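in:
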């Protein structure tokens, strides 16, 4: 504005001095001609006074106009504060103020791993870009940070080299530049420039004016950034930067309203739930859990297209919106690629952690689909995927809804069953193959529902895992099994019988689990050597460091540890020799065909031989007929259990079997299995969870 409204202060002074000199010269010549010395001196004094007054008046007038321009400029910027404009509109105001065709703001990010914002106005057109924070960008911004000032004037060819380079990169002949700061913090830089067609140079007055305006510009930009940050936080997850539930719902609604070409689908939603994320949080702490969520976010972003929407719905739940797709197979392909991305371990503060995910897919294949409907179907499909196991993808179908409704009812009934004492234990004998003697039992949780009848563990245990009830159920199973083992040893047989209890990952990986076991052993007076705790092989593979720490704490108590379902978790044999375990349990699937399939026989013989080499007891599970028993004996397998020996028994059935063996009677394993008595709902007070029959 100053450059457009009138002459600069230096021009005014030059004209004034020239006029004064002319007046003095003419007057002096006239006086000298008349040789009037006194008059000459008086005239000269008067002329000097006139010149001084004139220069002072014009200087004061210019300063007043300078302040007026500064006030007008600030008024323009204050309008931006009162009625927020874009950064581009703000730069347009600066172009008006300085009569220039170019203006630029560089806003540095909060962290160097983020990108800087660059907004430029040239010839009335605004461009907005982001740029990595490199050496050139930082050098440009901090070139104005000098001891004497926070601004500078750049002139083409006047140096320094950094200034010439800045002008050349922007195609300018000259510019004035100031630091963009708020309360002493450097936000970035502010520049106003003129191109090759404008020969007017910037002056020191321009520099001072821009420096005076820069703090106000900084406040305005900071306010705009704050507004943008608040708006971003309202619609994005603070931890991962992904869309939140509100923004995701908005995107899905718009996708469902959008028209697509015939034969194409409007949208699909992927509902993603991480497997065993709570275990990571409980064992390694919430900072590691947050780091894992951020790592999962990076891998998920590598899979989706730029225009797909990825959201974190809360906790370890993610969702992906895929728009305009040819068919459901495209959504399935995205889900499978994501599961592939998750195969590699995550480094959580030096601890490698592997994690899977369960993915449910819902397709918007009907005009009546709504956001709630679509998300609910994806959620249902995710639950089905989780039931099938880890790292699984399922697409919604109508049958899943019925299964979900039953699952929800089971969850509600299971919570009541825990407090009503509907859960109880049965015990399956474990037999030493060399002697045919029962040496232990495996405790098996059972549920006899008042409303639904007998519910198998394959159905209610996953519900307990998902609902968080598994820790309480597991704790009560452990206590009841230990109490019952003490009763058997004090019974008529007088024999000690070991008891095996399966552990869930949530139990084992809980930091206080070893303390809980020690407390139960002390309060029930069971010898630790008679308690055998079974863990799955997959748990060892996925959480090696943490699991080993928990196992060693249990071993210090004197209990024995067995790997359940050995051979299904792909554990390294090199690691197996270092694991503090005592036994291997061979799953039923490896025993089924041992009497008829040569390959199965060789495989089973290899596992048994490995166990003997490592001085581990081997227990075969699921022995159902004499042919399997003969093969196992021929391979020198140590122990076995299955229907060929006995069905799961109630406590009295186990006591009867002990008494019979103590009396010297033949076990009769080859004739018919011992059968459990009809299931009896445990008696006792309503607060009991698990009681022996």
């Amino acid at each position: 504005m100053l450059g457009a409204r009138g002459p600069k202060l230096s021009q005014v002074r030059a004209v004034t001095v020239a006029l004064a000199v002319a007046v003095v010269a003419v007057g002096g010549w006239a006086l000298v001609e008349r040789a009037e010395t006194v008059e000459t001196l008086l005239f000269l004094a008067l002329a000097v006074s006139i010149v001084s007054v004139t220069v002072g008046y014009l200087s004061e007038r210019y300063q007043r106009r300078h302040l007026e321009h500064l006030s007008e400029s600030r008024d323009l910027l204050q309008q931006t504060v009162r009625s927020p404009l874009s950064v581009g509109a703000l730069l347009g105001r600066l172009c008006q103020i300085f009569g220039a065709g170019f203006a630029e703001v560089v806003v540095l990010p909060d962290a160097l791993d983020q990108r800087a914002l660059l907004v430029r106005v040239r010839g009335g057109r605004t461009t907005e870009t982001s740029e990595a924070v490199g050496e050139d960008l930082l050098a440009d911004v901090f070139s104005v940070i000098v001891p004497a000032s926070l601004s500078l004037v750049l002139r083409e060819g006047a140096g320094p080299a950094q200034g010439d380079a800045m002008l050349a990169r922007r195609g300018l002949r000259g510019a004035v530049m100031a630091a963009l700061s708020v309360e002493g913090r450097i936000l970035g830089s502010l520049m106003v420039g003129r191109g090759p067609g404008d020969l007017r140079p910037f002056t020191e007055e321009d520099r001072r004016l821009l420096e005076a305006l820069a703090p106000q510009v900084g406040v305005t930009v900071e306010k705009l950034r704050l507004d943008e940050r608040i708006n971003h936080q309202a619609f994005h997850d603070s931890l991962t930067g992904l869309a939140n539930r509100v923004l995701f719902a908005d995107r899905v609604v718009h996708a469902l309203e959008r028209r697509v070409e015939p034969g194409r689908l409007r949208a699909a939603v992927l509902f993603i739930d991480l497997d065993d994320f709570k275990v990571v949080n409980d064992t390694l702490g919430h900072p590691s859990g947050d780091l894992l969520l951020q790592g999962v976010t990076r891998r998920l972003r590598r899979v989706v297209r730029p225009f797909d929407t990825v959201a974190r719905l809360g906790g370890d739940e993610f969702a992906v919106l895929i728009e305009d797709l040819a068919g459901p197979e495209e959504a399935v392909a995205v889900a499978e690629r994501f599961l592939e991305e998750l195969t590699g371990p995550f480094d959580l503060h030096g601890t490698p952690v592997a994690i899977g995910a369960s993915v449910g897919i819902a397709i918007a294949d009907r005009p009546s689909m709504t956001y709630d409907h679509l998300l609910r179907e994806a959620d249902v499909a995710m639950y089905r995927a989780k039931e099938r196991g880890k790292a699984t993808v399922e697409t919604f179908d109508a049958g899943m809804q019925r299964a979900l409704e039953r699952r929800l009812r089971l969850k509600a009934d299971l919570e009541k069953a825990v407090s009503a004492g509907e859960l109880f234990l049965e015990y399956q004998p474990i037999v030493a193959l060399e002697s045919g003697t029962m040496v232990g039992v495996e405790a098996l949780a059972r549920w006899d529902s008042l409303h639904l009848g007998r519910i198998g563990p394959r159905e209610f245990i996953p519900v307990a895992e998902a609902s968080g009830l598994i820790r309480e159920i597991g704790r009560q199973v452990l206590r009841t099994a230990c109490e019952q083992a003490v009763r058997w040893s004090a019974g008529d047989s007088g024999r000690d019988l070991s008891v095996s209890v399966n552990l869930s990952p949530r139990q084992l990986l809980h930091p206080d689990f070893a303390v809980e076991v020690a407390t139960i052993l002390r309060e029930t007076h069971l010898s630790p050597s008679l308690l055998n705790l079974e863990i799955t092989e997959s748990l060892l593979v996925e959480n090696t460091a943490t699991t080993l720490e928990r196992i060693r704490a249990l071993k210090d108590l004197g209990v024995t540890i067995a790997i359940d379902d050995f051979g299904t978790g792909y554990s390294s044999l090199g690691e197996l020799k270092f694991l503090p375990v005592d036994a291997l349990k061979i799953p039923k699937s490896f025993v089924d065909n041992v009497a008829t399939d040569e390959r199965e026989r060789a495989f089973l013989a290899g596992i048994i031989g490995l166990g003997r080499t490592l001085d581990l007891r081997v227990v075969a599970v699921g022995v159902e007929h004499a042919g399997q028993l003969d093969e196992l004996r021929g391979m020198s397998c140590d122990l076995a259990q299955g229907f060929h020996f006995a069905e799961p028994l109630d406590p009295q059935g186990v006591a009867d079997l002990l008494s019979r063996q103590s009396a010297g009677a033949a076990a009769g394993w080859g004739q018919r299995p011992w059968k459990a008595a009809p299931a009896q709902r445990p008696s006792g007070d309503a607060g009991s969870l698990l009681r022996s029959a």
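note: The chain has a mean pLDDT of 82.
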